[in-house]
Amino acid sequence: MSKTIIVSNRLPVKISKTGEEYTLSPSEGGLATGLGSIYKKGDNKWIGWPGVEITDDGDRQAITGQLADLSLVPIFLEQEEINQYYEGFSNEVLWPIFHYYTSTYAVYRQSNWDYYNAVNHKFKDAVLAIAEPGDVIWIHDYQLLLLAQLIRNEMPDVSIGFFLHIPFPSHEMFRLIPWRKELLQGMLGADLIGFHTFDDVRHFLDASTRILPVSSSANVITTGDRSVVVESFPMGIDEKKYSSLPLEKEVIEQVALIKETFKNTKLILSVDRLDYSKGILQRLQAFELLLQLYPEYCEKVTMHMIVVPSRDTVPQYAHLRDEIDKRVGNINAMYRNMEWTPIHYYYRSFPVETLSALYYAADVCLVSPMRDGMNLVSKEYVASRINNDGVLILSEMAGASKELIDALIVNPNDTREVCNAIITAINMPLSEQKRRMKQMRQLVAKFNITHWVKIFMDRLKEVKQMQRSMQTR
Ligand code: GDG
Which GO molecular function annotation, any one, does this entry have (predicted)? Predict the structure, then answer.
């Protein structure tokens, strides 16, 4: 009986240490929920890093045992591996380049690349320790671009799917990376490569055929005697969770409190991880422009901005955080009065119930990344609008903008356009809000996370069958 192995940089658990004790709590993220239908079944497994450095052998053994009960297999990383593979190569080369940031944010260091290679080998060893011929392996994201080929070299017949959660950049950006060939070869070890959008597919096909001696016909790449299918699978969310949370007592109470607090103003919500790709500074600039050009909106509009701490040991992220602090401080100092503060800024994460209450209570959700693979926040806002009201402002640089076409779509670099979209949003007649939101809610409900997992896995099975039948001909 074959099994399925999911592999990602992080395991879907949070591990925290209190005194000498480690405690595990399952992650509530969408990916964890969607893939829960797979890795919790039979002998299936999820392999990844538990997210914290654990050095003591006894602790490692104890945690491995606890994780085994949840079908999870840990890969322990040393501090230097975390520094160089994760923070160095993944977050200072791949993340910036794939989000179209070049010199300021991308740093090419040979040792980072060596560690990236070595850690991908470490993941390969962990997969090979449990994989058997006939198994299905689904690899996730940019930290593991080499893994598919490493596994393929040793188990030629295994089924491998790869999904990239961030954008795949145009060839002109991708070719800047000194190790571009190795990265593409690594990805092409998979049988099926998935991206969020058709543009990512196009960019990948283009980069592969220009950089490597491979050919492509439609969305199939031929490399040696193998063929690799490349397709888009736009990721969905756990729609049922977000549309039912607003009916829960705890959320209803929080909504009442938020509505009372902001009863005299329109509430604009913004939620992101701390990241330069999310366009947080540019968004603040657009909001400031609104207050500057249209003072009549002072006291009538409030921004509620949540920035979730992320990667703040990487210097550029720490710097971005300081810049946000400064910009928010300036705007509030310039425009606030005794009764009104323009921006309510939080640098921390909140329980999902609070997030749901904010999604439900906010008149507008402003999602304006400079570049985003998909952007799940925009879909979660839509799913939470169970009365079909509310307005989503969405950057055309987010993968989600290809599906949520009834949002107010903006270019996040165009400060004036974003400012005008805020005005349109807060003045939009209810009938128009409802017409737009209804369409988007239907889409988010239909193409949910369960659907995404199913179509990817079904397609991987089909692709493998097709390849096997071609080999036996
Ligand atoms: C990467 C890609 C792609 C945020 N604040 C809180 C909180 N969140 C949750 C949201 C949402 C998630 O974090 C963020 O997901 P995004 O998709 O918006 O962005 P990334 O983290 O950058 O994700 C992205 C995604 O992978 C999936 O492929 O869409 O393009 O960059 O789910 O709800 N959750 C809680 N409290 C918070 O304060 N509980």
Answer: alpha,alpha-trehalose-phosphate synthase (UDP-forming) activity
Cα–ligand 1 centroid distance for 15 (angstroms) = 19
Distance 157 CA to ligand 1 centre (A): 35
Give distance in angstroms: CA of 376 to centre of ligand 1.
Answer: 6
H runs (alpha helix) in 131-222 = 147-154, 171-174, 180-187, 198-211
299: left (phi over 0), alpha (psi -120 to 50) or beta: left
Residue 287's contacts (CB-CB under 8 Å, 6 or more residues apart) are 268, 303, 331, 342, 343, 419, 422
Q: In what side-by-side order are the strands of the sheet with 215-217?
A: 72-74, 45-49, 4-10, 136-140, 159-163, 192-195, 226-232, 220-223, 215-217
Evaluate whether 403 touches 318 at the Cβ level (below 8 Å): no
For residue 119, which of 93, 143, 148, 92 has the smallest C-alpha distance?
Answer: 143
* Per-residue pLDDT in tens (0 to 9) along the chain, 473 residues: 789 999 999 999 988 877 777 888 877 666 887 787 788 888 899 999 998 888 888 889 989 999 999 999 999 999 999 999 999 999 989 999 999 998 666 679 999 999 999 999 999 999 999 999 999 999 999 999 999 999 999 999 999 999 999 999 999 999 999 999 999 999 999 999 999 999 999 999 999 999 999 999 999 999 998 999 999 999 999 999 999 999 999 999 999 999 999 999 999 999 999 999 999 999 999 999 999 999 999 999 999 999 999 877 778 889 999 999 999 999 999 999 999 999 999 999 999 999 999 999 999 999 999 999 999 999 999 999 999 999 999 999 999 999 999 999 999 999 999 999 999 999 999 999 999 999 999 999 999 999 999 999 999 999 988 887 777 66
Q: Are 395 and 368 in contact (CB under 8 A)?
A: yes
Question: Catalytic positions, please?
Answer: 165, 372
What residues line ligand 1, using a CB cutoff of 6 Å? 30, 165-166, 235, 271, 273, 306, 308, 349-350, 352, 355, 372-377, 380
Strand partners, 46: 6, 72
Q: Which atom of ligand 1 is nearest to the CA of 378?
A: 18
Residue 401 is classified by DSSP as G
> Which helix (H) or strand (E) covers residue 25, if one does?
strand 21-26
H-state helical runs in 44-154: 57-68, 79-81, 95-98, 110-130, 147-154
